[in-house]
Amino acid sequence: MKTxxxxxxxxxxxxxxxxxxxxxxxxxxxxxxxxFVGIFEIYEIRYFSEAANAHAxxxxxxxxxxxxxxxxxVFGTVGEVSREVPWTLFIANYxxxxxxxxGVIFLVALAELMNxxxxxxxxxxxxxxxxxxxxxxxxxxAVDMNMLNLHxxxxxxxxxxxxxxxLPLYFTYIPFVLFEIYLILTKKRELAKRLALPILIxxxxxxxxxxxxxxxxxxxxxxxxxxxxxxxxxxYFIISAFVSSLGIMGVYSYLVHRNKPEYKQLMDLxxxxxxxxxxxxxxxxxxxxxxxxKDWAFLILFGPFKYLYFFGYILLALVLPFFLTFxxxxxxxxxxxxxxxxxxxxxxxxxxxxxGGNANPMTNRFxxxxxxxxxxxxxxxxxxxxxxxxxxxxxIGSIGVILAVYKLFDALFSVTSLRDTH
Length: 422
Prior knowledge:
Elements: E1 3-6, E2 9-12, H1 16-20, H2 23-47, H3 54-59, H4 64-75, H5 89-113, H6 117-121, H7 123-155, H8 162-185, H9 189-218, H10 225-228, H11 233-257, H12 263-291, H13 294-302, H14 306-325, H15 332-356, H16 389-413
Helix pairs in contact: 2-16, 5-7, 5-9, 5-11, 5-15, 7-8, 7-16, 8-9, 11-12, 11-15, 12-14, 12-15, 14-15
């Protein structure tokens, strides 16, 4: 393909149709259409509810039920963080995408520092995949915040709010990763290796800051001591993210590099990584459930999520990948299958943790039992609101963000190519 040079970077000469209407982009558009359908559904409920109207307001403007209906009409209840249900599918997807994407970037930076030449050759593609997942997570959380929050976030900034703690980090982290990709594409390997260490540190910084932000949300219920009294919880996010990240790297390697000579060697590296982190995560799970909050643990192990926990998370994310990667194999299909299981099982694990965070949603601060939200409400130790269809569409649609961002990079810079490390 013909190229032209700009700032020492070879850019492919690609037509408008070739850039925006190739097969991958068309698939991305299908996912994005689902996302916008979901956004329409969510925003219609949030902002265009007919529960409160001018006629009702004129008849009895001080009616408490009317006031509450107006509040629901303005702020909505679907897919937003609230005291009653502090966790949503948006939060689950955001946490999965951010942690997994930064995990891919971390592992690539670590491989560069440890002189894994084969990973260095494929580093550009892996980094773009990780960055695409970060963008998908930010897309999800932007929808979750809704237009009113985003509007007032800038008009009346609260620097202690989660978004204001998060934005400076991403405004630093994303440019650093982009610059690392630039250095790789322009064959400045020594500079790229030097930049790998700051990126390594910032990837952990993303996890630390996100952990603190989610802890602020978690403080809306009595399960908050999971964060304050069990600091090792942070390592659950990091270790489980590495398992899913290696799954992403395995599937990506199959889709992009399966016809290249280095494919089997690359997949063996993925196999060893999955085996190591699955083993570490398994040990963590055993230890964690011995010391974590018993109400929360019993809810996950024996409550309404028990089947998803044992068959969706333990089986897919831990057991099957362990047996599929335990021994070296000449069949990369086993590694691909293990990779798929870690991706699906990792998402199930994040969903479990997020919705399990609704354990004990009523405050028990006086030790007198759970409070009620209103006079007629029945106190409950667990609130579960099934994800709205709009949330599901938006989460599925976030895959379109990943595909679109990655394909644009690849069409312009051929990030799928294995590059010389010398």
